[in-house]
User: Fold Putative transcription factor AS2-LOB family from Rosa chinensis.
Amino acid sequence: MDRESSPSPLNQACASCKHQRKKCDSNCELAPYFPANKYHEFQNAHKLFGVSNILKIIASIEPHKRKAAAESILFEGNAWKSDPVHGCLGVIKDLTAQMSFHEKQLSVVNQHLAFHKEQQKKRQEQDQSDFLNDELPDLVRP
Assistant:
């Protein structure tokens, strides 16, 4: 990997090395994905996966997808920390329920919009009819 010799601008150990209480050098495979400021999030992920499994996961993924995988690992660790029973499934269920609620609201709003458009169309037709009825007698007279 092309990296600078220091893992961060302040020469801090990455979250993984900090957790393992070891020196973070330029060969650290996790430093690009787990910076020092993500230490608490990394702890959550470590409890769920362990460092060796995180290394295996990151190593098994194409290099351009590793950043996204690391973010997913951190997200899942945080999800299990906040909801030890459901984890990510709980987040998915909550988001699905929110989507369903908002889709129903959108449907109601679209029904109201259709109703008001129809009312407006009827008013315009009535106004046009009234206008023609008022003007027609003048046109018929000599």
